[in-house]
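Hi R.,

As promised on Friday, here is the backbone we talked about, encoded as structure tokens. Could you run it through your design pipeline when you get a chance and send me back a sequence?
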């Protein structure tokens, strides 16, 4: 009985580990990909009225509609994360995204602070969003 329990526990951890890597975000074919610089930040209140949660997978963008979903990929290490836009910013020239601390951790960019990324808006779709033309600014 102990052996069966041990095998079952091992299978649960193995499939959980595989499920984590299988469900990593990826880029969708046919949707535009933008190249820009991203940083991470800590704030107390967001433009959407939510309190900033550094454990949430969220980001700030200057022009995308609040509630948009964006896949972000760190060009250097190829790690990706899916974030929801819930704030405005960054207010530093040359940057397009401010990521939450957890999103930055998932991308492996906490030490660097600013990295080159590829971003792809997956919701709302580009053909519904006229502001997307200026998304990389």
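Update: got your reply. Pasting your designed sequence below so it's all in one thread:
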């Amino acid at each position: 009985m102990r052996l069966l329990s041990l095998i079952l526990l091992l299978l649960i951890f193995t499939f959980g580990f595989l499920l984590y890597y299988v469900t990593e975000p990826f880029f969708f074919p046919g949707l535009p990909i933008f190249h820009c610089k991203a940083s991470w930040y800590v704030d107390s209140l967001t433009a959407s009225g939510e309190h900033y949660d550094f454990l949430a997978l969220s980001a700030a963008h200057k022009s995308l509609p609040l509630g948009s979903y964006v896949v972000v990929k760190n060009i250097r290490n190829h790690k990706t994360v899916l974030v929801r836009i819930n704030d405005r910013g960054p207010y530093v020239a040359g940057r397009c995204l401010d990521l939450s601390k957890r999103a930055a951790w998932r991308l492996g960019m906490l030490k660097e602070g600013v990295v080159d990324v590829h971003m792809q808006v997956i919701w709302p779709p580009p053909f519904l969003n006229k502001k997307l033309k200026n998304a990389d600014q």
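One thing I noticed while checking it: Residues 17-23 have pLDDT under 50 and may be disordered.

Thanks again,
M.
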